[in-house]
Write a structure and sequence with these properties.
alpha+beta; eight-stranded antiparallel β-sheet; transmembrane; 442 residues; 16 strands; elongated; three-stranded parallel β-sheet; transmembrane helix
Length: 442
């Protein structure tokens, strides 16, 4: 606080002189009327003016963040801080002169603490280039109380009696109770405490993470699209809980990945034409499997595969990976499109870990019967037993296609909880299949 004032406020001395005059004149008049020391009253006014000038003059940093107070440094760093030492010294003169002038050490000590809190509270409310910190409050309060203690010991030794009176004890106690309650309420209801040191560490960590993200994405782009591929555009989307979606665009295609998982989410090649290669189905499947095992080793392990031609794309074939646990298809999805030359044209993946599910008790036959009862005499055809999120929890769910009598096409899809048999509406937790995300030409 003092360092910033001295370096950033060239007019500080002039302001101090003006404040000393404004406070000193009435202080001298009151001291004369009460037969107090005019010299001490002027010194008290000057030291108080110094505090107010240093702490309340708007800083050069412009408007800061209002209603916010920094939690401050750890104890070791606080004690070693030059700023804390200067703030400690700032309050010593005013508490010394006040104790000598008023001879009420308890009241002066309480007043010093109240002044320290009030100044930081005002800085937080005004936010005019000043930052409220609990370090300043602590240092100022310690300085004020320390000055009172030293002066009290001096008076005690000099006058050979304790400079405490019943009136001082009562006034000090009452002042502490009233102002303590008021300041506590003011800080609690109007000030937000933040950990500035932690925020700085988070910002530094975010910078380091961003650098790592860029390096990993650049390596991934080169590995998938080739050495000469340059990233033309990148993006980041915060997903919460420290997770991000990273995207990269190149002249050859786009990539989306999850961080810090370092898992591909999608790969879309701009070249959506078959290469006219002569690989057999077995060789194309092997090429897709190599890609899957390299980029999705955890997801492909223990999964079932299905390999088929993509009807909408001549020459392209789709390799699906699905995993089943106790007959329930897990939410993990990996779909890879490969061309007749073995080039990976498109990838979509949902790399969700296998959730823990309650045991399914509703059979396929029972699910069909329940669906028909709930759908007004339509025919039910259970498609799959899936793990899906329902109201935030993973559940085994029957996905059932409903048909009108005499029709071969599904007219509606119903979901039934495979434990309770109740109809549910699961959250959309599946990754889109290739061709279902606006990339139909792939």
């Amino acid at each position: 606080m003092i360092e910033a004032s001295i370096s950033a406020l060239p007019g500080l001395v002039s302001l101090f002189v003006v404040a000393t005059v404004l406070l000193g004149l009435p202080a001298a008049l009151i001291a004369g009327a009460k037969k107090k020391s005019i010299v001490l009253s002027l010194l008290f006014a000057a030291t108080l003016a110094g505090i107010l000038t240093v702490t309340m003059t708007p800083g050069s940093r412009g408007v800061g963040q209002a209603r916010v107070c920094d939690a401050g440094l750890p104890l070791g760093a606080f004690l070693a801080s030059e700023s804390a030492q200067l703030n400690f010294l700032l309050f010593v003169p005013v508490s010394v002169t006040a104790t000598l002038l008023f001879r009420r050490p308890i009241s002066v000590a309480v007043g010093s603490v109240v002044l320290a809190f009030s100044i930081e509270l005002a800085q937080a409310w005004l936010a005019e280039g000043r930052a409220c910190t609990y370090d300043d409050i602590t240092a100022n309060a310690i300085g004020g109380v320390g000055g009172v203690l030293c002066t009290t010991v001096y008076l005690w030794v000099k006058e050979r009696q304790a400079p405490f009176t019943l009136r001082d004890i009562l006034w000090g106690t009452g002042l502490a109770a009233v102002t303590g309650a008021a300041l506590t309420a003011a800080f609690h209801f109007s000030i937000t405490t933040v950990d500035g040191d932690a925020r700085q560490n988070q910002a530094q960590q975010k910078f380091r993470d961003t650098d790592q993200q860029d390096q990993w994405m650049n390596r991934t782009v080169v590995k998938i699209y080739g050495q000469q591929t340059e990233v033309t555009e990148t993006g980041m989307q915060e997903l919460g809980h420290g997770r991000w979606r990273l995207t990269a665009k190149t002249a050859r295609g786009e990539i989306s990945a999850l961080w810090p998982d370092r898992k591909l989410e999608s790969v879309w090649s701009k070249n959506n034409k078959d290469d006219g290669g002569n690989l057999t189905d077995v060789e194309m499947k092997a090429a897709a499997e190599r890609f899957g095992k390299e980029w999705f080793p955890d997801e492909t392990a223990g999964s079932r595969t299905n390999f088929r031609a993509v009807a909408e794309q001549r020459g392209a074939h789709l390799l699906n990976y699905r995993r089943y646990v106790h007959g329930v298809m897990m939410p993990m999805r990996v779909d890879i499109i490969v061309t007749t030359s073995g080039r990976i044209m498109g990838v979509t993946a949902q790399t969700t870990a296998d959730p823990s599910l309650p045991k399914a008790t509703v059979t396929k036959k029972e699910a069909k019967k329940l669906a028909e009862q709930a759908s007004d005499r339509t025919e039910a055809d259970p498609v799959s037993l899936l793990a899906r999120r329902v109201s935030g929890s993973w559940r085994p769910v029957w996905m059932i296609g409903l048909k009108a009598h005499g029709s071969d096409e599904n007219t509606e899809t119903m979901f039934l909880d495979a434990v309770t048999g109740k109809r549910v509406q699961p959250q959309n937790s599946e990754a889109p299949l290739p061709g279902q995300t606006g990339k139909a030409n792939l």
